[in-house]
Each structure stands twice: as structure tokens, then as C-alpha cells.
Structure prediction request, 491 residues.
Amino acid sequence: MPAPAEWQARRRRRTATAVAAEGARALQPLPERPPPPATLSQELTEQAHLAGPLALNLIANYSLNIVSLSFVGKLGDTSQLAAAALGTSLSAMSGKIPLMGLCGAVDTLASQASGAGQPVGIIFQRATLFLMLHCLPIAAAFVSLPALLAALGQPAEVCALVRAYLLALLPNLFIDAVARPLNRILVAQRMTQPQMAVGLVVAVQHVAACWLCVHRLGMGYLGAAVASVWSNVLSLALLVGWVAAAGLGERVWGRPSREAFTGWRQFAGLAYASAAMKCIESWSFSLMNILSGWLPNAAQSVAAISVAFNLYGILFMGFSAFAMAASTRVGNSLGAGSASGARLAALGAALAAPVIWIFVAFVLTWPPSQAALLSLFTNGTDEVLLQRMRSLLYLVVVLELFDGAQTILSGIIGGVGKQKRGSLINVLAYWLCAVPVACLLGFWAKQGVVGFYSGMCLGPAIQTFAYLALILRLHWGAEADAAMQRVAAAT
Prediction:
């Protein structure tokens, strides 16, 4: 822990740098400062209080696509189900994942600004404008993706159906451009209960929305996309309504300011590096789903890897929630000038990873729970498919160990603001190592989907050790000083 004189010197430097930027913001409500860290157990408890509601919210949001596809599946039209599933995957790959990555800049800047006691509304405004601007090229990609599918040999009928589905999902892009910064701003100020409540309410009503649009109104498979847009609009409206009703508008989105059009160089540097980290990893795993269609017994291979991927996604939410909590706690401490607090938060987050993994491993390997999970996706008559799924689940356990650990460690990196180094690590881990090895095992060694997942385990393993080495080499005192300078420039 830094000496009192050193800590006071840091505080004076931050105050002197920030005072010139205060101006009209002096009367705005400031975020409450996070409580100072005490013990490791207290830090873990604090992170768990943040991560618990976030995990439920993430699971509720993840369930929306599953519910939508289940309603489309009941229509009995294989082409429409394939188009809806493919459209959902493409919209995530080309829209949701990039926007989620770009929003990583908010994790760094807002958490550090909140820890420093500075207003974060200007960061929300800047982030929303930045994401809205990027929605335009993403929307253009939406329109062109079906043509790419046709060039890759997809049937013309499926391509036409996918194009209509993507166009119906297009409003979700612009909704996300507001909803994601809003959620990150709330998390940065340690507010996670509202997102959980809103997520659960929206998930329940989404069942009724899908039934109404798909069946009652006769919109068919496009009704699932319309219901998805409606649920996202409702989620954003409820969250905005809660912020307004709680009187937190000034503290969350602030007053409109021209300063939102400044500071883009700093924001873009963090945003693009964060997006690279997220996209490299997510696109690499999505590529395995696409390549599985080129294997012998393609139908069973695609089904097995799709089921494994869905189970993987659901059980992964605990790691994602703790990563967000870690980013918040580390960023808050650095913004407050507490190097020891940031170090303690990083240690607590790292120790949470094996605890979560033990639970995930138990669920995936205990025979009764394993059978219950597989029964959600198959009727149990195809023994070959079941055997492939069981083999994949054991690989998923190994993958969750490393991928869960690297996800939480990436949250620490985001809280510090080292996304650029993280993106370089991901290039090495996936594009230079995991994907080539997975292709060799899957095709050349003829191990199929098991080879794909075995090879992909290499990526998170490299990430975990590289991220850990990066974090262990951090000089926390210097990072606290850098955070104060970053906050002064951002607010």
C-alpha cells in the first residue's frame, strides 16, 4: 500500500489536472465513491454482489434467442428455422459482438471516472454517439451478408429468407447502441439490480411476444425477429424509466454537452482494441460452427457442436458476470488512486475463476445433470448423436476452465485499460495457434468436431497464461497515476 504522503500527492495531482475541466459540471451529482477495500473476503463478497444480478441478467438475455428459435421450430418449416438460426448467428457476429467490444472503452473510462468521483454522463453521451456512427457500416454489412452466403454456396431460398430476417433484426443495432453504454455506465457505478429485474421481466414477456407475432398475427419466422426487436425496445424503455424515476438521470447520462464530440481519440483507442479482443475470440469459435458443416455426417456434426455451444454459452455467464464485476472494482480503485485496492480486486477476481469452474464442471459431468441437459436438445433416440454430445461436453469442461479464467482476467485488463496488449495476445492465441490446430485436428487428423474443440482449447489456454503474465507485471502505482490522467482527459 502506498505511503500516506504518496497517496496524497497523487490526489493533489488528479485534483489539479481535473479542476480546469470542472466548469459547468460542478453542480452535477457525482457518483458515490466505492468503499475502500479491507480484506480479500470482503472484496470477494463485493464482487459476488455485483456479479450475481449480472449473471441472471445475462442468462435472461441469452434466453431470448433460444425462445425465438423454439417458436420458429414449431412452424415445421426447416428452411425458415435454418434462416432464423443463421440470421441470429450472423447478426451476433456482425453486429452484437462488435458493438459489445466497442463498448469496452466505457468499462475502462466510466469505472475509473466513477472511482475518482467524476461525472460519467459525458462518457455515456460520447459512447452513444460513437456506437451510433458505427451502426451505419454494420447495417450495410447486414444487407450484403446474404449475397456472401450465396457466393459460398448456400441455397438461394435460404439466402432470401436470411436477408428478410436480418432486415427485421436491423433496429436492434441502433437499440444496442444506446442500451449497452447505459448498462455499462450503471455497472461502473455498482448498480446491477435494475438490469436483473428488467432482464427477468423482459424474458418472461418474450414468450408471449413470440406467440403473438409468430402464431397469432401469422407473421411466421419473421415474427420471431419482430418479437426480438420489441423485447429490446421494452428492455431499454424500462431501464431508462427506472433511471428517470430514481432521479439518477444527471448521474447516469448527464446534461447534453458539446464535450461529447471531443475526446474521441482516447475513446477510439480503447474501443477498437476492446472490439479486437472480443471479435477475434468470438469469430474464431463461430468459425468452428461453420466448418462443422463440411465434415462427414454434417447434420450430426452441426447438431452436436451447436448443442455444445449453446450449453457452453449458458454456463459461461457466471464468468462473464465476474469479468464485469472485476473490471468495475479494479477501475474504481485505480480511479480513486488506490493501487492496493486495485491489486486486491484483481486477486479476488482471479480466485473466483476456479470456484465457478468447479460448479460448471459438476453440472456438465454429473450423469443425472448431463442427461437432463442433453434431453433439452434431443429426444434420445439417436445414440450416435448422444455419444458425440457426451464427448464434446467433457471437452467443454476443459474449455470452460481456461476460457472462464481468461474472461475474468480480461475484465481486469479492461479495468486497467490495457486492451491493446490484450488484442495482440488474442491474435497469437487464436489466429496463429488455436484455429490452425483445430482445423488440422478436425480435417487432417479426421477427429471431426472433437478435433475442433480440442484445438480451440489451445486459444483460451494461451490467453490465460499470457493475461496472467501481463497482470503480474503491472506496476499498480503507475497504473493508478495513469488512470487519474485518463479520467481528467475523458471528463
About this structure: The chain has one domain: 35-490. Residues 14-28 have pLDDT under 50 and may be disordered. The first helix runs from residue 4 to 22.
